Amino acid sequence: MKRYGYDTSSKKCKSFIYGGCGGNDNNFETLAECRETCKDNSSEDESIPDACLLPSEVGPCKGKQNRFYFDQKANTCMPFVFGGCGGNGNNFVTEAKCLETCTKPSAPEENEDICSLPIKAGPCKAMLKRFAYDENKKKCVEFSYGGCQGNKNNFESMKDCTFKCEQRQPKPEPEAKCSKPIETGPCNAKIKRFAYDTKKEKCVEFYYGGCKGNENNFETMEDCTWTCEQRQAKPEPEKGPCSQPIKVGPCNAMMKRFAYDNKKGKCVEFYYGGCKGNQNNFQSMEDCTWTCEQRLARPYALQNECSQPIEAGPCNAKIKRYAYDNDKEKCVEFYYGGCKGNENNFETMEDCTFKCEERQPKPEPEEVKCSQPIEAGPCNAKIKRFAYDNKKGKCVEFYYGGCKGNENNFETMEDCTWTCEQRLPTPDPEQVKCSQPIEAGPCNARIIRFAYDNRRGKCVEFTYGGCKGNENNFETMEDCTWTCEQRKPDPEPEQDLCSQPITAGPCMAAIPRYGYDSRRGKCVKFLYGGCRGNDNRFLTRSECEQTCMGGATDPEVEGGEGRLCLATKHDWVILLKAASTGNLTFEVSRSPCGQLPDNHNDRCSQPIRTGPCRAAFRR
């Protein structure tokens, strides 16, 4: 039976289990009754909700849900398994929420400066990222808060800490701090630190003993440079948190965080796994922006990194790295020995390219970069990239293998468009439209449309399926003629395409087409491979006959010998003689068909003759 009693040692009311008989009067049914009777005015309890004083309760259900409750004895939050129903208010989904609800930092003395309080993690075991003012360093620093107790020198963001403490502290002149000698101090620790060397007029690394010393002592090169070299070049961020890679870490939490992306030059959102990672990890976009974007200037790395020679170093490891080759004016792969060497050493081709190649003077894009073929490269990665397609006259998406390839390779469509499309002469869109092949499309509608036939040099009618197809598709003959014929040069004489041999091409498709067989004097069906070939290729037999035969007349025969007029284009006539033996011979005449002798028999009245040859033509 749950009851409440006043504990004289802790001077507050606590719950206990009453056996049901005996006992004494220090036994109350409710916490409120106990507090009212015994004058429990604990300042700690006033700041802690009643729910936090309750014991953990699994509840009557049989579920297994991981929860946290506040343990008054341990003064921290502890895990327990909740059944899923019932229970009480001392039940939290996360440890952080439990600590936030049930623990409060101790209040400072009246008029006490919170920025002068020592940094206290507190006795609890949470690892909450917080910021506090360090009196020794005279600046705000990050620390891990345990989640309970501690003090008011505890801020959720660097911005809050800086606003509250740093802006109100009298800051020493940089010269005063930076002009002090470098002092390791009398202790024996070996802590890597940085200090301003007045002789070298730059910040250098040194090892701090761990005690005493002076203010010319900085945790990072950036802090030293920022403080002491303000009149020199801006600090290099390569060793600071803002230039570190974005690391999720090996754990599986999904914690929304923010980090500085060096390639994009701005802070971005990412999900932190919850462990390991690095310092490029901020709880808010404001912290990231304030720390990285406003304080760090992009370094001009060419003098320091990209212009250095490629050095493998004296060690014997074989670590694949990338460096900028000043002779070739591009990043190349090399094997790093594992020690020494120099800063012209990058873990990925992308890092090298970003640091070095993109800052070199670029050649004219239309002559070099944009005119190169699209190359995925020999590696097997699938990295989404963009390149300029010279055939299509525009930038397209492709998948980059991750190595080699060429310069026609952009990370964004915007980069590709800006580099190639806006600087390259664009073709006349009408010319592009009219030069496309006539396409009915895959659908089954039968819509009369008009298109420009490049082989015939004029607009023709065709039947459109109703979907897909291309831009060479006009609703009226007038639109087609005005758009295409008035802008096109005269087509090549049709005699040229009809005299070309019928060619299937090297590809393996089997597309039914028709071509003019000049030896046989008629249009025949053949299977087109799908690529190359020539212009002697038509979609239909009638189109072939209209183009190459000009509407052939009926055959003419006389006695045992007949003549068939096969073409009348350009006033030339090809006469096909049918000898009585069945053999075929050709005769070319300048005379048109209409001038041929009129003494002929009807073709259909002639007997069927196979002739003496052994060919097997399907008839």
From TrEMBL:
It comes from the Eukaryota. Keywords: Disulfide bond, Glycoprotein, Protease inhibitor, Repeat, Serine protease inhibitor. It holds the Pfam family Kunitz_BPTI. The gene is Acey_s0068.g220. This is BPTI/Kunitz inhibitor domain-containing protein. PANTHER family: PROTEIN AMBP. It comes from Ancylostoma ceylanicum. Residues 1-38, 52-102, 115-165, 178-228, 242-292, 306-356, 370-420, 434-484, 498-548 form the BPTI/Kunitz inhibitor domain. Gene3D superfamilies: Pancreatic trypsin inhibitor Kunitz domain. GO terms for molecular function: serine-type endopeptidase inhibitor activity. CDD domains: Kunitz-type.
